[in-house]
Amino acid sequence: MRRWTWGVVLLALGVPATAAWAVKKDEKLYVKARNTRVLKSSVPTADVVAVLQPGQQVTWKGADPKNAQWHQVTEPGGKAGFVFQTNLSTKPPDMELVSKDGKTRTIDPAAFVSSGAAVKALSPGAEKYGKEKGGGYADAVAQIKKLEGLALKVTPVEIDAHVKQAGLFPVVAPDTKVGPQAKKAVK
């Protein structure tokens, strides 16, 4: 049976497909999420070995046999650890396009994320267009600007607290701290 046919059969049986299917041991994968934790073991509360940013490459060592949602990797500095599968991709993140003075250029995804531009819903050009168009467009611009303001007030620490309180799976770190994770009681 062809490889893709096996994939369809496995998906039909409820076996999750992973980003690592297309790679072999010791090949490269890319980090997709900001502040992706590389953990000492495949336990979500394990010590943090490294914190990676979008576009960084890791060397894939295989899925954890005990929990296939976690994949063993070696980070760029040579430290081994485990990363949650949804934070990995076989393809590098797309370069972000920015425009200034009528010229378009690409920028590195990690630089784009750290610049804060990734959380902006409207570019200055789109904002200007909406305001000039008036009516519902101007209202939509005002609403989006208000949402952007609210989004800027939410910190990674608050997101982390919400994830824990809601019982969601913590796959990214609230900061770039390496070492033991804080063991705080969740109310």
From TrEMBL:
Gene3D superfamilies, A to Z: SH3 Domains
Span of the signal peptide: 1-19
Organism: Corallococcus coralloides (strain ATCC 25202 / DSM 2259 / NBRC 100086 / M2) (Myxococcus coralloides)
This protein's name: SH3b domain-containing protein
UniProt keywords, alphabetically: Signal
Highest classification ranks of the organism: Bacteria, Pseudomonadati, Myxococcota, Myxococcia, Myxococcales
